[in-house]
Amino acid sequence: MAANTRLRRLAALHPERGQVLSVFFDLDPSEFATPPARATEINSVLTAAAHKVEEADGLDHEERLALRADVERVREVLQASDLATNGTRAVAVFACGPADVLEVVRLAHPVESRAVVDDRACIEPLVRGPAGDRWCVLLVNRRSARILTGTAEGLEETARLTSDTHGQHEQGGWSQARYQRSVEQEKRTHVDGTLDTLFALFKRRAFDHLVVGAPEEMVTEVEERLHPYLRERLAGRVAVDVEHSTVAEVETAAATVIDAHVTGVERAALDRMAQGIGRGDRGAAGLRDVMAALEQARVEILLLAEDFDAPELDAAVEQALTQSADVLVVRHHDDLAVHQGIGAVLRF
Fold it and tell me: Domain tally for the chain?
């Protein structure tokens, strides 16, 4: 649910000199499935961006030169990479030479292709998309393990591990007991190595939620031996073939867990808002009251209906992010319909 660091950084971008160029590219595979089609789209949007730079009012000579250079910097970075990979449905690029900013954001949801020149970054299309929380799925059995990471919109396999462990057998006697202890130790070593790898990946690039898939006789043990940082991120379990399931099959299984989690997060926030409104303290609803709470820096969570649209939207999102509030787009409940599509949980 938390707005990520990148969104907060972009929301806080207000250069003392110059303007910010925000450029959005739609990569809908039904229209831009081939490199030539994507190249045509890039050229079209950047041509529009160049026209906006020339038509922008109130720029001095140096500011206009900087924006022209920004258009070319955007062109260079886009031409140097293949955009349509790993489920990318759109790309946003933010550039401001005087502030030394050039940031490319891959999006898993479509956006309208356009260019914006303003004194701040245009971040509303990023907030509109599906929740940007990072998810991890750990699949592990006695001899194999797989780690997949991504967002609610798609996962990719990050690591695969295999250990040389023996299978169990049913001979009796003293030798069987020793053999069984050996098998259990091999399993434990394999699981420990897997969890070490998982934590190392987490430290390199943290994820918000973890889902575990393991044989029934192992899953509780795996969860209990997670590092505390990872255990507190547990969101559920999946039942898939650890070794042979495809990424698509894992995504389908994880989608149920993710959807249930997101639905619950929305419900909890809406209930907190309603309780606060009822008490007359830590809840606000409707455009006027929410904007007033934002002006007073009282908002903890800004709640937006998926179809919310008002001239104040950009300002509301920016204020929320710069005040370290969370922005939650509500997709699974209609509570906000009677509140002009906007509400808030307040800090005080």
Answer: 3
Asked if residue 83 belongs to a domain, the reply is yes
Cα dist from 199 to 123, 138, 184, 225, 228, whole Å: 32, 11, 22, 12, 10
Q: Look up residue 282 and give its DSSP letter.
A: S
Q: Report residue 2's pLDDT band, with 50, 70 and 90 as the boundaries.
A: very low
Report the amino acid identity of residue 98: P
**Judgement on whether residues 35 and 148 belong to the same structural domain of the protein:** no
Tokens for 105, please give them.
């954001």
C-alpha closest to that of 342 among 311, 318, 306: 306
Q: Which residues pair with 283 in a beta bridge?
A: 345
End-to-end CA distance of the chain: 20
Is 201 a residue whose pLDDT tops 50? yes
| Residues 6+ positions from 158 with CB-CB distance below 8 Å | 147, 148, 149, 201
Q: Strand pairing partners for 309? A: none
Q: Name residue 151's beta-bridge partners.
A: 154
- The pLDDT tens digits for 268-314 are 999 999 999 999 999 999 999 999 999 999 999 999 999 998 989 88
254 domain residue, yes or no: no
CA distance 20 to 256: 39
Q: Are 282 and 348 in contact (CB under 8 A)?
A: yes
H-helix or E-strand containing 21? strand 20-26
- Confidence tier at 106 by pLDDT (50, 70, 90): confident
Whether 38 is covered by a domain: the verdict is yes
Residue 346's pLDDT is 97
CATH number at residue 39: 3.30.960.10
Q: Are residues 115 and 63 in the same domain?
A: yes
